[in-house]
Write a structure and sequence with these properties.
Layout: H1 8-12, E1 16-22, H2 29-33, H3 38-48, H4 54-64, E2 68-74
Parallel strand pairs: 1-2
Length: 81
Amino acid sequence: MPCRQRFSYSRAKVPVIVLNLAPEAAIDYTSFNQMKDRTQMTGEWLAFCFACPVPEIANVFKRSGSSFYQVTGTLNNDTHA
């Protein structure tokens, strides 16, 4: 039997939902630049870097022939997301 790794969504035959959500519409650079704690700054930056991997993730699903849907928006005050 050939050793092939298959993703669970391939076996389940169900679409995947990619959540592309940020905490707010834009990062508050005034407060961000005043942060003294680098760890806190990194966490804040990563919270807003939501869209970075979405094209790569979408490409993987597309090439594998898997159905997927993308939800883009913000976590707060976004009626569409």
